[in-house]
Amino acid sequence: MRWNPMQSIFASRLWICWLAGCVWLSIGCRESYRQDLDYSYGVEQTWPIDEIPDGEFVQFESVFWEPDDTTSLRKLISSEAIASGRDVLEIGTGTGLISVLCLVNSAKSVVATDINPAAVANAAYNAAMLCPDQTLDVREVKRESPGAFAVINSDEKFDLVISNPPWENGVVSKLGDHAFYDPGFRLMDTLLDGLPLHLKPGGRCLLAYGNVPAIRRLISESEKRGFTVKVLDDRDLDSLTENFLPGMLLEVRPNTVPQKVQDGHFKPSNEVNPELGPVEDSRSAPEEPSSKNDPTTDLTSSPNRTLRK
Fold it and tell me: Are 270 and 208 in contact (CB under 8 A)?
């Protein structure tokens, strides 16, 4: 059958419309594709998360994944709304599990950092898939200049600083090792040193550790800086194996010195009002024997002997 010119024009336009519709449907159905994401990493596995029932977390290759590390922290975020309306910083985000959970639970803003480029891509991907209408600010820490606040500006402050840091003092031979080893406990020390600068007044720092020596060191180093540590767990540290799961949650609070303005300069309150007495530098002062109990000794025993790796 031969078509007249009008029929040919109509058929051509119909074909173009059909083709355009197919292209539109194809793009529209690929809701998971984002040009701003990095798809170059292989996928290790996917996991469902109880706190986010509408999707699964994706783990990229070389990115650490152990949800039991942060069981207590996730409960506080999802059940007690500790991130709601707050500016949050997560140090060492991994797959982005904790940061995404903060976004899902109405955090005002979330900054996530990691030294592993695969983890940076992984966290950005999971945030885009699971909470596409919100923004996760993911920043990569350079290996040549590591540190807990290396990619945080000096004037950035947060209501909530959270981390599931590496637990052991060990040698890092590849990027994935940063999830397990903290050489010389540099990350722990820089985190503690930076807290007074980056934690807002009344803010909270919550750290999840599943290693007994690391917890003891955290408590000791915090006390040297004049910080207080509260163990948010009912297990007896002495009854646990060196590595254990779920991780133990600890809250670290710097003891800030009140300041007032006098003659255009900030001065400690005791200089403005001598009745407050002298302010001692907890770092330079010699340590005295303490009669206080170790914060972990009054915990009830309920050991979990599962190893992290």
Answer: no
The tokens for 95 are 């797959």
Q: Which two tokens stand for residue 72?
A: 């207590």
Closest CA to 232 of 210, 218, 249: 249
Cis peptide bond upstream of 246, omega within 30: yes
Does 41-256 carry CATH code 3.30.360.10?
Answer: no
Strands 158-163 and 199-211: parallel
List the alpha helices (DSSP H) in the chain.
5-29, 71-79, 97-104, 117-130, 186-198, 212-224, 269-272
Token digits for 145?
């200049």
The model carries a pTM of: 0.73
What lies within 8 Å, CB to CB, of 143 at 6+ separation is 115, 175
81 Cβ neighbours under 8 A, 6+ residues apart: 105, 106
Task: Per-residue pLDDT tens, the chain, 309 aa: give them.
Answer: 555 555 555 555 555 544 444 433 333 333 456 788 999 999 999 999 889 888 899 999 999 988 899 999 999 999 999 999 999 999 999 999 999 999 999 999 999 999 999 999 999 999 999 999 999 999 999 998 899 999 999 999 999 999 999 987 777 777 777 778 788 899 999 999 999 999 999 999 999 999 999 999 999 999 999 999 999 999 999 999 999 999 999 999 998 644 444 444 434 433 433 333 443 433 334 444 443 344 333 333 333 323 333
Task: Please tell me the distance from the alpha carbon of residue 205 to that of residue 308, in angstroms, as a whole number.
Answer: 23
Please state the domain extents for the chain.
Answer: 41-256
Two tokens, residue 19: 């083709």
Q: How far is CA 279 from CA 107, 197, 274, in A?
A: 36, 19, 10
CB atoms inside a 10 Å sphere around CB 268: 14
- Calpha distance 93→96 (Å, rounded): 5
Phi and psi torsions of 177, nearest 5°: -70, -20
Do strands 259-262 and 199-211 pair parallel, antiparallel, or not at all (unpaired)?
Answer: unpaired
